[in-house]
Structure formats: C-alpha cells, structure tokens
Amino acid sequence: MSTSLFALTGRRAVVTGGGRGIGFALARGLAEAGAEVVLVGRDPARLEMARKALSDTSSTVSVFSADVTQEADCEALAFYCREQLGGLDVLVNNAGTNWRKLPQSYTFEEWKALIDVNLSSVFLVCHCLFPMLSTSGGKIINIGSMTSVFGTTHTAPYGAAKGGVVQLTRSLASAWAEHNIQVNAILPGWIDTDLTAKGRKASPELHDKVVARTPAGRWGTPKDLAGAGVFLASAASDFMTGVALPVDGGYSVEG
User: DSSP string covering 123-162, please?
Assistant: First the structure.
C-alpha cells in the first residue's frame, strides 16, 4: 500500500485542545505527516510552548487562543483559518476536561460546564468551520472516550457528554456526507494524561485494575493515538465515516 495514502502534505488542520496531552500528540502526528497545523486552546503560553516543541517537524505550526465554548471565539477561529490558511481540510475536536465526583456530588453548574466543554464545543466548532470544510470536502475527527461505552462511578457528566459526541459524530457523518466530509470519532481507552493522573491519585487501585484488564498489558500514551489520527485525516479513510474507533489496547474486548 502506498504511503501517499497517509500523506497530509498540503492539508490544513485545526486541533482544539492542542497544547498538551492527547491533542498535542495528535497535532504532532498530523504535522509529521505534512499537514499545516493550528493549535487552539485557552492558554496562550502553553500553546506557544507546544508550537516550539513542534518546531522539529517540517510543517508550519501556528497557534490561536480561543475558548471553544464561546460562539464568538469559534467564529474568530473560522475567520483566522479563512484569512491565514485560505481554508481548512481537517478538524480535530479534542478540547475537554473532567472532574471526578460521585453523581450526587456534582452541582448543576458543574454538570453544565462539563457538557459545554466536552460536547457543546464540538457542535459549535463544527458549525462554525463547516463552510470551509464543505468547500472541497474534509475530515472531522472528534475525540470521544471509552466512558461512552462503559459506565463509571465518578465521571457521569463526562461519560454523558462523550456519549453525546459519538451520537453527534454519527449524525454529522450522515448529514454532511453529501459535502464529501467524513466525520469519525476516536475513543481513547485508559491513556496516561494529566486528567487520568488525577484519577489514579484519587483511586490508587485504578492503575493495576486497568493493566490487569488490558491485553496490551499497559496504559496507553498520547502518542498511541497519533496513528489513528493520521489515518482518519488522510485519503486512506475516504470511505469511512460515522465510526467510533476504540484505541484502548484491547480493554474493551475483555469481559
């Protein structure tokens, strides 16, 4: 199979939440495959650190500070992409956060905040960037979670939001197929990030439980998701849409 199927040279990509963790790893994968990448996030200093860290790639990497739960910021991002990139080919919706509590311990304001960051932002960014993606076809990659498949005691709002991301992915895939836009989701399993580090600190037994159930015998790392990101951003996945792809070391196949 020709490696050109996976080449992203000439493609223009936006990665929300691209300053750290999974978002940064996905951005590196896209940049190393040849895409021009815009890192989006709320922390300008962290975005700049991430941009500098990607200076070892041959791709152009820029940053755009935005809160993707705010419509005005998403419209400004669309304007930036039109004016500075001349369009857009790939959108990765990765921005998200989580707070671990039992369901009865969340306030309604916390519930709404987690739904906004993890689900509403996906719709908002897609809505604002759709006109560019529909011009000549494009790829949307939404980052879900295996919590959309399994119930967890301490992540009810997050799991509900990520379940919504999967359903939104399917709906957009159906609605936007006529525009030659493929919309897919990646469902990370247990990945070693800042967020999961907090979970392991709160539940010391979590690490061993995950390793025991995972056929790969370890937690994932953010870079384990880069290959799936490049695949879904490339021509290799042109006949694939509406899919929620687990990247979990086999965790989900264990009973």
Answer: HHHHHHHHHHHHHH-EEEEEE--GGGTS--TT-HHHHHHH
Quickly tell me which residue has 């932002």 as its tokens: 121
CATH of the domain at 170: 3.40.50.720
Helix (H, G, I), strand (E, B) or coil at 228: helix
- Residues annotated catalytic, as ranges: 158
- Cβ–Cβ contacts within 10 Å for residue 255, how many? 3
Q: Is 40 exposed, middle or buried (0-12, 13-18, 19+ CB in 10 A)?
A: buried
Considering the domain boundaries, does residue 251 fall inside one? Answer: no
Instruction: Provide φ and ψ at 19, rounded to 5°.
Output: -85, -10
Q: Residues, the chain, total?
A: 255
Residue 88 belongs to a domain: yes
Look at residue 107 and give its three-state secondary structure: coil
Its domain, for residue 204, covers 3-246
What is the rounded CA–CA span in Å between residue 55 and residue 61?
8
Residue range 136-192, pLDDT digits in tens: 899 999 999 999 998 889 999 999 999 999 999 999 999 999 999 999 999 999 999
Here the tokens at position 126 are 């897609």
